[in-house]
Amino acid sequence: MAYPPTWLLLISLACALFLSCSGAADKDRKDYIVYMGDLPKGQVSASSLHTNLLQQVTGSRASEHLLHSYKRSFNGFVARLTEEESKKLSGMKGVVSVFPNGKKKLLTTRSWDFIGFPQNVTRTTIESDIIVGMLDTGIWPESDSFKDEGFGPPPSKWNGICQTSSNFTCNNKIIGARYYRSDGQVPPDDFSSPRDSEGHGSHTSSTAAGNSVVGASLLGLGEGTARGAVPSARLAVYKICWADGCYDADILAAFDDAIADGVDIISLSVGGFIPLDYFEDSIAIGAFHSMKNGILTSNSAGNSGPDPYSVANFSPWSLSVAASIIDRKFVTGVRLGNNETYEGTLALNTFEMDGMLPLIWGGDAPNTSAGYDGSYSRYCDEGTLDKSKVSGKIVLCDGLSDGLGAIAAGAAGTVMPNDEYPDLSFVFPLPTACLDSENSSYVHEYLNSTSTPTANIQKTTESKNELAPYVIWFSSRGPNPISPDILSPDIAAPGVDILAAWTGSGSLTGVPGDDRVVSYNIISGTSMACPHASGAAAYVKSFNPTWSPAAIKSALMTTATPMSPQTNTDQEFAYGAGQLNPLQAINPGLVYDAGEGDYILYLCAQGYNSTKLFLLSGENVLCPVGANGTFTWDLNYPSIAVPTQPGAGVNRTFTRTVTNVGSPTSTYKASVAGQQGLTITVVPDVLSFESLGETQTFTVTVTAAALSNAMSGSLVWDDGLYTVRSPIIAYVNDDSEA
C-alpha cells in the first residue's frame, strides 16, 4: 500500500484542526451588544468603526459576525462573539459595556374618567403634532382606534418610515411603523411586518393615543367609549416583541430609530427579569439617549410584585409606572339547581349559557384509561378527565387552571376555586366561574345533596370596587435595587381590567375550539398602566412643547393624587408619588428640572469614571473629587428616598431647585407632614418668584431615630393656586433582598 507524503498528512491535520476549532468557536458564539455611548464626532463612519473594532478580536471574519450597527442616535453594535471575545472587547478603548443579547418580557372605557380625565378636557391644536413612539408587539392598523379620518399629513418634523408589506400599510394616524428581529428567526404564526399578532401592542397604543371609539366592549363587557389620552396625536410603531419575547438588540435598534425619527414620547411596556447596571440594560441605555434628545421614556414598573426590590425599570431619567385598580370590577355568578347563586371574580365570561346543565365533580370523572384516579382528576388538569363523563356538563374543579383540561374533555363549562387573584380578570376558553373557598364549598355541598345536580354559569357583570384606587399585588415594588436614593416606582396609573384595542389575527384565547375574534379586549398589567402615563406625558407636552423630559416627569409626579397607605401597605414603594392626574399636570406651578449634565454628575456619584462618562455624553467630564457615592441624593428629583442601615437613624440634608412655570409673581409656602418619629425641615420655607422661568433653591433635612419599618411623609409647596407635592420615605435598605 502506498502512503501519502508527510507534508500532505500535516496539511490534512492542520485543516482538520482548523475546521474543528472554527466549528467549536461558531457553536460557542452568542449574540452580544457592544455599547459605545454617544455617536462619534465628525465624519466617522460608525459601521466602519464597528467592523474595525470587531476585527481586533475576531480577525478577518468580523463582517460575518457583525449583526447590526446602532448609528442614528447612539453608538454600538450587535455581534456574534465567544465569551472570551466579549471580555476582550469590554476592555477596549471606546467601549462602555458589553452584555449578552438577553430577552425581556411584556409586562379605556372607564380608566381615564376614574382618574379625573374626562373626554371633554381642554386640548391644544399642537396635540396633532405630538408623535408617540410605541415599542411593543406592533399594531393592528384596521382597528377603529387607529383610523385616520380627519387627520392631516404627518408633522413636518417626522423623519421616519413605514415598512409596508403585503399585509401592512400606514396612514395619517399611524404615520410610521418598523419591525426588528436581529436573528431573522420570526416565530411561526407571527407576521414579518409591523402587524400585531399578540394584541399587546394594539392595546397599549390605543390606551396612549387611540381615537375615541363609541360603544367599544369585549363582547358586551366594559362597554363605553374607548379612547387614548391624546386621540389627535400620531403613532409611530416599533415592533420589538414577538411570541418568544423581546430581545435587547431589537429594543436598542428601535430606540436608535425612534429618537432619530422625531418622536416626542416613547412608551415601553417591557421589562427584564433581574435588575441590571444601567449601561448593561437596553431600556436604560435607550431611555438615556432619549433624554439627551429631549424625549421622555415611560416604562412599566414590572409584574413581579409584591416582593420588595422587584421593580424592573428604575433609571432616574425615565418614568417608572405602577399598576393601580380602578373602581370597576367584574363578577361572574353560578346559579345552582336549588336556586342559590354564588358570585366570584377572576373569570371574564362572555358566553351566554342557555338553561341548566348537569354538574359533575372532576374527582368523579377520572380518565382511568390513562392511569388517573380521582385524586388527579379533581384538579381537572389536561388529560385527567374522562370525556364520556364530562362532555356537555359543567365540571367542578378543586384547582385553578387555564381551563384547558375542561375544554379538552368536552366540558360545557367549569367552576374553579380562586382565593389567590381577587382583584383582576382573565378570559377563559369556555364558560367559567371562579369562586372563593367558602362559595366553592357551598357548590360542593349542593352537588353532594342531590343525584341530579345542575348549574348555569352566568355572563359576567360589572360592580363597583369601593376601595379603589390601590396598587394591585402583582405590580412590582421598590426600593430601587440599583440606586437606593431614588424612589421607585415614580407614579401609579390604571392597569387592571383595561379595555382597549386588540388584534384580529386569531381567537380571543388561541385555544382550539374558541372561535371568538374581538376588536377590543380586557387585560391587566403594568403594561396597561404605562401607556396611561405615556399618554398623559404627551398631553402635558402638547401644552408645554419646550419642556424637558424631567420637567414633564416632575409635573406628572408633583400633581399626582396621594394614595392611602392603609390600602397600600408598601406605601411609596407601591405607588411612588401617587395616582396619575393628567388634568392637573399641565399646570403644576413649579417643576424639578434636570438635564443631561445633572444625570452625568449623578452617575459620577454612582461610581462611573470620567472615561466612561465621556463616551456617554461626547463631552469631557470631570467628576468632582469625592463624588463617588456621596451626592447621589442631590439629583434634582421630585421625590426623596432616604435609605439607612438596620438599627441606624437618619439625618440627611437634600438640596433641591424648583423652576416657576405657574404665575409670574407668586409666593409659595412649605408645609410638611410625616409619620410620628419622622422630622422634616425645609430651609427656606417660603419661596418668592417674580417671573416665569425663575429658579429657587432650598434644602430638606430628614431626621428619624433608628428605623425598623419604612416611614413616609411629604413636602408641599402651596401658593394658594398651585400645590406641588413631593413624597418622602425613609427606610432600612436591606439590599440582600434585591
What does this structure look like?
By secondary structure, the protein is of the alpha/beta class. It is 23% helix and 27% strand. It contains 18 helices and 38 strands. Strands 17, 18, 20, 21, 22, 24, 25 and 26 form an eight-stranded mixed β-sheet that branches. Strands 7-10-6-13-15-16-27 form a seven-stranded parallel β-sheet, with helices on both faces. A hairpin with a 2-residue loop joins β11 (241-242) and β12. α6 (200-209) runs parallel beside α13 (526-543) and α13 crosses α14 (549-558). The longest helix is centred in the N-terminal third of the chain and has 23 residues, at 6-28. It is globular, with a radius of gyration of 28 Å. The protein starts with 5 loop residues before the first helix and ends in a 6-residue tail after the last strand.
